[in-house]
Design brief:
300 residues; alpha/beta; Metallo-beta-lactamase, Chain A; three-stranded antiparallel sheet; 22% strand; globular; binds zinc ion
Length: 300
């Protein structure tokens, strides 16, 4: 083959590779999709303290705090949920929502806030959430007006909502919220009381997650949690059960790995009878264990 023919065939193949791929489909998320993964339907509001409420939309819930100068609301959940939330707030106060605080970046909690934005509310999130909002834009998401690093306080009407950042745990921008001086924390997705975590603990950082649970357990003056899913309140001690489950699961998987048990066999061998009473134990234990095997093998 002559040099001339070689060059010609190289150019021909280069030209074939240079053709751009055809345009792809629009993969941006749909507005107001409302695909709840929870079986619970409808909505309700529960009073937790004279000025403190939790609103449930299907299987997801938030917290709102009434002050003399307006309301501090949290996760608006979705467009339809936020409309219902606004009506529920109207039943207990005629004051406007002054703040909407995001617990973290996940869409099942924080979409639909525009109804409050249009009425002048200030939106607040941890600064780490912004990169997620930019990477995965959503038509129903109101971007935060105020962001912060570390902890933050919102003061309104003589009351202080403490936003506590414990580092990466569930995603990397989650804050737990304390409406001082109530002995209450609003804790989203770090522990849904009485249940084991779902699936392969997607978007959880296992070791810092356990450390965060321990940090919350060590906080003084907290008696009750408002979880981001299911029941209105639960004793704060319920966090300890989730933490103990995770630690037992990690220790059991580690022991099998050290003994040289193949991963597929670990999934069949793993059993944590002390935690068998927890919701979803039967269906989720193997999936949870898979995640732990991945952590020990890959470091994430
Ligand atoms: Zn989440």
């Amino acid at each position: 083959m002559t040099a001339k023919i070689l060059i010609a065939s190289f150019l021909a193949s280069a030209a074939a590779f240079a053709a751009p791929p055809p345009p792809g489909p629009d993969l941006s998320p749909p507005s107001n999709a409302n695909q709840s993964v929870f079986r619970l339907q409808g909505f309700d509001t529960t009073q937790v303290a004279p000025d403190l409420y939790t609103f449930r939309w299907e299987g997801t819930r938030n917290m709102f705090w009434v002050t003399p100068d307006g309301v501090i609301a949290t996760d608006p959940i979705s467009i339809n949920a936020a409309k219902a939330l606004r009506d529920e707030i109207r039943k207990v106060t005629d004051k406007p929502v002054q703040y909407v605080v995001y617990s973290h970046n996940h869409w099942d909690h924080i979409l639909g806030g525009k109804i409050f934005k249009d009425e002048g509310a200030t939106f607040v999130s941890h600064n780490n959430c912004v990169k997620h909002f930019t990477m995965y834009p959503h038509p129903d998401l109101v971007m935060p007006d105020v962001t912060f690093e570390g902890n933050h306080e919102i003061k309104l009407g003589g009351k202080t909502l403490e936003l506590i950042y414990l580092g990466p745990n569930h995603s990397d921008c989650l804050v737990v919220m304390r409406p001082k001086p109530h002995p209450v924390l609003f804790i989203v997705d770090l522990a849904t009381p009485e249940g084991v975590p779902l699936g392969r603990l997607n978007d959880y950082y296992l070791i810092p997650y356990i450390n965060s649970l321990r940090a919350i357990e060590a906080m003084e003056g907290i008696e009750t949690m408002i979880p981001g899913h299911r029941m209105p309140t639960a004793p704060i001690a319920t966090l300890g059960e989730r933490r103990a489950y995770l630690e037992a699961l990690m220790a059991a998987v580690k022991k099998e790995l050290e003994a040289g048990t193949p991963a597929a066999e670990i999934l069949n061998k793993i059993s944590l009878p002390d935690f068998a009473h927890m919701r979803n134990y039967e269906t989720q234990l193997k999936e949870n264990a898979r995640r732990v095997i991945t952590y020990y093998g890959m470091g994430w």
